[in-house]
Design goal:
heterodimer; A: alpha/beta; Rossmann fold; four-stranded parallel β-sheet; flat; B: four-stranded parallel β-sheet; three-stranded antiparallel β-sheet; 9 strands; binds iron/sulfur cluster
Chain lengths: 153, 222
């Protein structure tokens, strides 16, 4: 009682706290042509980003459905982001534009349910832009850390 | 088709508050075509409801099903075996479907998940607008096929009124003045003389003003 901790003990406690710190789980729904290529390049360039992201590769973000997004949250994702080609360079012409509209609609649904629309975001990341991918992961990680874990967990 | 739109989530959640086991019932008819109550919309609504309830720590059991139509006995009667196990049915069909559920299953709570809006067309993917009001005595032969009952904001029979400006309605500049459309169309058809005729007072008794309507075809009955 009231005993002072030894230095190694303090170090262990600090380490445990760090592990216990909220590490968000973010699902990234990204297209094979642009954002996935950028993510791959981020890896081969050894760029550092938070280990919070789980990637699901799509042939095109035009295939991302509102239901996929909702199911990810229902399964406990803290955040979801959709990453497509830059506007004007979608390999299927307008898949990323469709995804943009669906993300906007799903954001409204999430807000209406009380989960918060900010847990979902759309990014446009060209194949040659690994830094933008890193930025997206970092931005979503910080945002979700502020918001706290998915309240359904 | 009948065009409908899903109600706001909070309204639906408060409608089903306290209920524990619900059937969410879609319809493959009109509301599938206008994306308000299709199989897919049932899945989306069910997911949203489950999340909303879990967030409040009041989990709910949902069964998802979609009938070919909710306005015909052969389909609505398919529920007879299972309907007893639910606290309520949340129908995503138009109001007709909800009514028919209530008619056929006196002991089941029937709730509407959509607002039934109008009889209309899909102008383009994702845009619907009104064309007919089901007045019971169609006069489209006199108006170039364009309906003043449903499409004139004031329901005028001998329009336009003085509020028609550059082809737009004074009620809302996004709405076309249907009497301008009628004029332009009759002109194009060389039938402007039709407008010389003053349309008589309409018999609203055959519309909903005369009470609920019914059609019987003895030749079709079995
Ligand atoms: S129940 Fe309503 S939405 Fe379904 S087919 Fe019948 S009229 Fe159309
Ligand atoms: S006149 Fe009556 S039946 Fe004909 S389109 Fe208009 S509302 Fe419908």
């Amino acid at each position: 009682m009231g005993q002072q901790m030894t230095q190694p003990e303090t170090r262990v406690i600090k380490g445990v706290n760090k592990i216990m710190e909220f590490q968000p789980k973010i699902e990234a729904m990204i297209c094979t042509y642009c954002t996935y290529t950028a993510a791959d390049m981020a890896g081969s360039q050894r760029l550092q980003y938070p280990p919070t992201v789980r990637i699901v590769k799509y042939p095109c973000t035009g295939r991302v459905s509102i239901l996929h997004i909702l199911k990810a949250f229902e399964a406990g994702a803290d955040a979801v982001f959709v990453g497509g080609c830059e506007i004007g360079s979608c390999h299927f012409v307008e898949g990323n534009l469709r995804a943009t509209e669906r993300v906007a609609y799903a954001k409204k649904l999430l807000a209406e349910t009380g989960l918060g629309g900010d847990r979902l975001e759309m990014f446009y990341i060209g194949a040659s832009d690994p830094h933008k991918f890193v930025e997206a992961v970092t931005q979503m990680t910080e945002r979700v850390k502020r918001m706290g874990p998915n309240p359904l967990k | 088709m009948i065009v409908a739109e899903r109600k706001p989530i909070q309204e639906i959640l408060s409608m089903i508050s306290g209920l524990r086991k619900i059937l969410i019932l879609g319809c493959k008819g009109c509301v599938t075509v206008c994306s308000a109550g299709s199989e897919r919309e049932v899945m989306i609504l069910a997911t949203i409801i489950r999340m909303g309830r879990k967030k409040k720590d009041e989990p709910i059991e949902l069964v998802e099903r979609t009938l070919v139509r909710q306005c015909d006995p052969e389909f609505i009667d398919q529920l007879s075996d299972s309907i007893g196990q639910f606290d309520a049915v949340l129908s995503m069909a138009c109001g007709v479907g909800v009514n028919f559920l209530a008619d056929r299953y006196p002991k089941t709570i029937a709730l509407p998940a959509v607002n039934t809006k109008f009889y209309g067309v899909a102008e383009e993917q994702g845009v619907w607008s009104e064309r007919c009001a089901g007045c019971g005595d169609c006069i489209l032969n006199l108006t170039g096929g364009l309906c003043p009952v449903a499409r004139c904001s004031k329901g005028l029979f001998n329009g336009p009124c003085g509020g028609s400006v550059n082809g737009k309605c004074e009620i809302n500049p996004d709405i076309n003045c249907v009497w301008q459309l009628i004029y332009d169309r009759l002109k194009g058809l060389n039938q402007l003389d039709k407008l010389d005729e003053i349309l008589p007072v309409k018999d609203w008794g055959v519309s909903s003003h005369g009470g609920p309507r019914k059609i019987v075809r003895e030749d079709l009955k079995i």
